[in-house]
Every structure is written in structure tokens, then in C-alpha cells.
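Hey Z.,

So I finally got round to the iron/sulfur cluster thing we talked about over coffee. Here's the setup:
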Amino acid sequence: MKRIGVFVCHCGTNIANTVHCDQVAEMAKSYPGVVYACENKYMCSEPGQMMIQEAVREQNLDGYVVAACSPRMHENTFRKCAERAGLNAYMSEQVNIREQCSWVHADKEKGTEKAIDLVRMAVAKAVRNQPLSTSTIPVTKRALVIGAGIAGIQAALDIADNGFQVTLLDREHSIGGRMAQVDKTFPTLDCSACILTPKMVEAAQHPNIEMATYTEVESVDGFVGNFDVTLRKKAAYVDFHLCTGCGLCQEKCPKKVSSEFEMDLGPRKAVYVPFPQAVPNKPVIDANHCRYLLDGKCGVCKKICPTGAIDYEQKDEVIVERFGTIVVATGFEQFDISKYEEYGAGRYPDVITGLHLERLMNASGPTAGKIKRPSDGKIPEKIVFVKCVGSRDEAKDRPYCSKACCMYVAKHATLIKEKLPQSKSYVFYMDVRTGGKNYEEFYKRTQEQYDGQYIRGRVSKIFQVGDKLIVRGEDSLVGRPIEIEADLVVLAAGMEPQKDAKDMARRLGISYDQHGWYSEAHPKLQPIETHTAGIYLAGTCQGPKDIPESVAQASAAAVKATGLLSKGELTSEAMTAECNEAVCAGCGLCMSICPYKAIDGKKITERVHGQMKEREVAHVNAGLCQGCGACTVNCPSSAMNIKGFTNEQILAEVDALCQR
Amino acid sequence: MKYGFYPGCSLHGTGLEYGLSTHAVAKKIGLNLVEIPDWNCCGASSAHNRDPLLAQALPARNLALAEQYGLNDVVISCAACYQRLKIAELATQDKKARVEIEEVIEMKLKGQAKARSILEVFANDISLEKIQSHVVKPLQGLKVACYYGCLFVKPPEVAIDSSENPLMMDEIIKTLGGTPVDWAYKTECCGGSLSITRTQAAVEMTAQVLRYAKLAGADCIATPCPLCTSNLDMRQKAAEKALGISFNLPIYYFTELMGTAFGLAPSELGLDKHFVEAKSLLQNLSATEAQ
Ligand code: SF4
Ligand code: SF4
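And the result:
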């Protein structure tokens, strides 16, 4: 029989107030295997741990149970303590009599009773504990960054600067993301392209960065240190090795299409680069609009291309590559304003969004930077901004704050006044939220120096009369309805996750919230990590953020990724599943249920009635297994066991509970 | 097609022509409307201000009656009645509320009877194709402002169409050969509930509805609601005075326009019962057509 010790913690008064700790220790002495039991005010403290170590040596213990707080808090503490005492770390067992007893039971007698039961169970398990060991897995020293907006670019640059290989992937054919569409940035009003373009170029030229634009992630297999990612390189119909980016094809292409990059405010061609500073600055052919690809007519670009780079025969390419870590930076989409029918969005051309206005203000935009109304090209004089469109509105299933809109509206009002000194801007708001360095000052300046008139209240209706837009709302500070005849209305559309964010999450095996934002492992202490080891989050795929925040998170993700890559190998989980091949029936149920795809089949040969027979059994890849236990409960033959939580150990606990 | 029919008081009183035209059109199109025997007031104008249980029990009794006669679709013309019956229908989905209501009305409720608006039944059950097949005198050149009011489309839980930009009636008018105008006041309140208590406020609200219909270039307004109609029609003179503008906008129940396009006689539809003269616009229309 093993020699087990029991240590009951008071946790100051946390436990001792509602549990008679002395009685718990006293009872423990009577359990089979227990040779020593005592109590202490703070088991996790230095003296507490010393006490355990001394007892292990003096009483010659094989293992012990600590009855204290949650293992989430201190399991590691007591395992390390076991090692210092000369035991295997997994010979330490912790039972939670704080959260599960003292904190939830006011009655001291009942609390004590429950604590006694829990300790009895833990002892029954501890007697059956076995030393466990970890192994190591090699790490592929390459990172994948998915999404090449400002967050993805920053993460890639940081990882690359730290000396590791990075693949920077984007499904669009230029990097730059949303920030490339923005004209100026708050609160400094520097030109967005001027600060973004150098980074784009740097990423393109960095020896450690490989760009994979116009590429999508099809699937992700493997696990931390070794992700096998299947990538689809979409056919561009242009051979980038031959193309010099001269732009002739784009110039001569007869097919005009509305430009997504310009928010449909301007045209592009069927063969095109989305914007002048695009990286790579080489065109692709839009197969949905190219006359040649659609019905075999035209072919102008091929005729005109001086280097023969146009290749109508090009096909999608699918490749599998291995990466040690993945940074997800897939960004956001703008809320679809047509869901506000009362604002006439989508029906009235002069009701636009913030991103539309960015394009209208941009020197390389469809109006060369002149703010003109989309309907008739007139210069607007009265401009109304409506905030929180698709944010903080439960009726539209968007209860969250999109965070950046307060500031970008202030920026717009400021810039409009600069460009059109005769104009007047009105801003309807619910609250003004300007939490950020120099943000509040910026907002004040918009009001005081740039004549932005802020009106607290929601807009109820926008409609067109003649060439004016009537904006009807409430001034809730005055308590009156208010009506403004505007020339242009800008809706501050909030952020929402990419349409396919949930699909992507499933491919990556990471979790997301009810809206589709990716979930961090812990909202305060692990805001970069996901629940899947080796996958990190950067930027707005995790939730609304502005540029500085996205960049900060991207750098943080890069540090995490670099930290992982700089390790030669990773320690695997000790508590993984294990198949008892003798009883495994090979049914495969565990394989289909394992969320980490950690189980596959393997052939074994065995002697049955004197004959050698071959059959298939389950086989666990310890590197992939996260020890979740899904397979063990599913296994009809009880062949699957989690090390440290075997069927035998759990049944012993149940037996112990029933013995009262 | 056999449907239960709940006329409510307005179809026997202020909205007589709504009742007439609804029945005439239904007959023409083969929609069999069976008036629910022993129906009672839905309590629309005041019950919900007095006693929530009464406000649900009154309309619920009509649903219970309909169920007893095996009429699971209860078609309602009046917007206010529709809303009360719909809200009762939704309320009785909740078991606890249902038991309470059953006790008050001393009847059982299976929760099968559904409150349906006549507008939606025409648009969906009858279908636009079927409506079109009965058109003999298209409303050629008639510019109509379709005014839905609020009770059919708000709150969103009871809405028969989009709460902000409903198009159901516009589609019917188009099918009849008319031209629905695009305007922003189709769901704006006419002040119906203030009509008696604060008449001046109601007049001002009504005046705005009329003004924007006129601005949009409408020749007339079509409604599915007796309350809206009485405000827009009966108080039009007062509204004109308030704004100092002459509107001269006939206010039709959409069923009257359907009946006209189906070739029914004005007297069958009650076109002579309007405050703002309503016959000649439609007669001139057919005259132009005859030329
Ligand atoms: S579920 Fe159990 S029996 Fe079936 S294959 Fe997996 S380990 Fe074997
Ligand atoms: S414990 Fe969980 S992760 Fe490990 S093999 Fe079983 S199901 Fe897969």
C-alpha cells in the first residue's frame, strides 16, 4: 500500500470559517493508505510548502493530497513542491474545498461533511496515482500570419525582425487591409498611406517574409509547433514572375467594373490593381468580369502585355506547408447600413458610411480628394453624422461598442471643415467615448476650433425631399425633436466580424463569441492567446479596435509567436489519452469525437488461438492530445484512459464517495 | 378559401366603406370570409390603458370563438383590431398567460387561431398573380401614396412587413396598374390615438402626412386602416387650415382601389361615403382609359 499524506489548508479564514479543518484532517487519518494528516493556515506559503516537503521525507510518503483552493490556482505550485520533495510531480493531488465547500455552503457542519467526502475521494485516487512523464516535440521554426492588414503586417515584421521566417497571407491581392482605404488617421491626422505604405514595402522586401497574397487558408491540421496548413493560391491569370507592373493591361482593358476598394464610388477595370500603392503592384484578372474568361472575346490585355505575363490558362494551386505557430489577423467588415431602413441607407445615394467618406477625401480616391455628393457631384454644405449605426443597438443584434467610430467621426468633422470652410457638421451621438492618448483633446478641438456641433440623441428617420436629406432626431439635452436639412449624411457604421469568421475559426480550431469575434484565452490575462496552443490573435478579428491598439496587439502576438519559435522543442502534455490495445475493439468512435484529431488507427498483430492475426486499434498522438477526455467517455470498451484520470481512479473516487 | 373574419366595430361604423369594399373584393376574388359568430369588441382604443389582462382577454375570446368554429385564420381589416388580436395570439403562446386568460373568458384556447391582416392575406395567400387576373380597369396613371400607419408594422413582433419600409400595399397598387409613389411617411403616426383627446395635435400630425404625400406627387392616399382614414379624410379640412395649403387628396381604403380596378361599381365599394370627394378621381381615370 502506498503511503499517503493529507494536508488541509485554512486559506486564512477563507476555508476555516465554514469548514472544521481539524475534523477534516482527523478523519483523513482513518482512510486506507493515509499515514499522516495535518492542517496549516496557508498551505501555498513558503512555510506551508516546507511542511509538505518535510512530511514527505520524514514520513516517507509516496504521494499526498492537498485540500485547499481550486487546482486552477495552485495545482502547479503543489506539483512543483512534490518535485522538490523528491516525488514525481503527478503524485501530488489537489482537492478543492474552498470554491466547492466553504464559499458555497454557509452551514459549517454541512461544509465540513462535504470537505470530508471530497478528501476521502481524493485519497482513493491518490493511492492509485502513477508517476507520469512528459515528452518533447520538435518545433517548425516558421510562422504563418493570416490577414495582411496593419495588424498582420506588424506581426509579420516583428517576427521577421526577430530572425524567424514568416509567411504573410491575404486573400486580397494586395496587403494593406482596411487601413489602406483610410485617408487620414486620428488623432495626429497623418496620412494613412504615408505611414502604412513604408510598412507594406518593408514587409514585401524583408528577407524573412514570404508574401502569399491572393491566397486562402483551406484547412489547418497538426498542432502547436507543427501546423500543416493547406493553402489555395487563387489563379490571378497573370504570371507575377513575368509581370513588371507597367499597367498597360489595366489601361487598355475595355471592361469597367465598380471598385470594391473605392466602396463602389468609382470604377476599376477587369484586370486591375486595387489602389496605386498596392503591394505587390501587379494586376490580377477578375474572372467574374473578364470578357475573355467569360465568353472568349476580347483578349486585349494578352495582346498588349509587353512581357507576355497574361495567362488565361492559370489554375488555382493548392499546397500544404508546415508552420510552428499561427497569428490570426483577419480583421473586420463594416456593418451593413441597409439594415437601418429608417435611415434610407442603400436607397438614398447621399446617405453614406465612414469608409465611403474616407474614399471621397482621399487624394487618390474617385473624386481626387474633393468631397462631392455621390448623387449629383455637388459640394455639400450641411453634413450630418450619425454615430452608433450598427453599434450599441440590441434591436440590430449589435449590442457592443465599435470603439473607433467616436474618434473617426471627430476626425471627419475636422477634416471636412478644413476642406470645406463654408460647411457645417452636425454629429448625433449617444455618448462620446474618447479613451485614448490625446483622443479627448482631439474631440474637444473638433467642437471648439472646427465648429462640429454635437447633438445628443438618436436619429429616428432620414428621408429625401427634393435634393435635401431630412434628418429627424431628438436633442435629448433640450428634450425636443430636431430636424436638419442636410446635403450629405454619413453613418458611422460599426465594425462586425468578417462574414466567414466562424468558418475560419472552425478551420483553425479556435473559439468565437456569439457575434463571431475570436475569443481570447482569458479576457484580462491572456488577451493574445487563443484556447488552441500556438495560435495567437492580433487586431480586429478579436473585437473592435483602432489602429494603435491593433498594432500593439500585433506586436504582442509576435512576441508570443517568437517565444514559441525560439524554443527548440515543446514539452507535451503528461495527462494524455492512452489506448489499452488489448481491449480496444477498433470501432473508431474515439477518432470521430476527438476535437484535436489526435487519434488515428494502427494495425497490431497478436496471437489468437495459436494463429497470428492482424487487427486495427486506436492510437493516440500524444503531441496532439489535449487530455480533454472526450474519447474516454465515448469508448464503449473502456479501452481509452486519460493518464492521471484513469477509469480505475475515477471509479475508486465514486466508491469512496459511496462508502459514507 | 375559407377564412374567419373579424370585422370589429369600425367596419360597421366609421369604416363602413372598408367593410363594403373588403367583402365585395373578397367575393370577386373567391375569398370566403365567414364572420365569427358572437364576436366581441377587441378593446383597441382603451382596454390596454386600463387593464392588461382585460386587454388580452377581449381579443383572445374572439380567437377562442374562431377555434370553436374551426376557423384558424382570422382575417382582420382594421389595423387596431389586428394588433390587439395579434398581441393576444402571441401572449397566449405562453402557458401561464393562457391559463389566466382562459379563466377570464371561460373558454378553452388551443393556440391554433392566427390573427391575419387582410392586406397580408391578399398579398401572400391570394397572390399578386391572382389579383392581376381580376384587373379589368387598371389604375393607369394613378399616383398613390401607400400609407400603412403604425399598427400593422410596429412593434416588429406583430409587423406584417418591414417596420420601416413596408412594400406590400405598394406591390398591390402596382399590380392594379397604379403607380405607388416613393415617400418617407408611410409608417409615420397620424395621431390616431390623440384624435379625440388632443385633436389639435392629431390634426398637426395628420397635416404632415398629407403634406409629404402631396410633395411626393401623389393624387391620393391608400390605407389599410380605418383610424388613419378617419384622420386623413375627416380632418383634412382642418389640416389644410392648419398649414394653409390645399391638399384635396382623396383617401381610399386599398380595397376600394382593388374593387375599382376589378370593375366594381362605386356604390358597391362605398365610394360615396368619403369626406374628401373620392369618386371623380377614379371616374376620370376610367374615362381616360376609355378614350
Ligand atoms: S472508441 Fe475505444 S474501442 Fe473504439 S477505436 Fe477508440 S479506443 Fe478503440
Ligand atoms: S483526450 Fe481529448 S484530445 Fe486527447 S485523444 Fe481523447 S478526445 Fe482527443
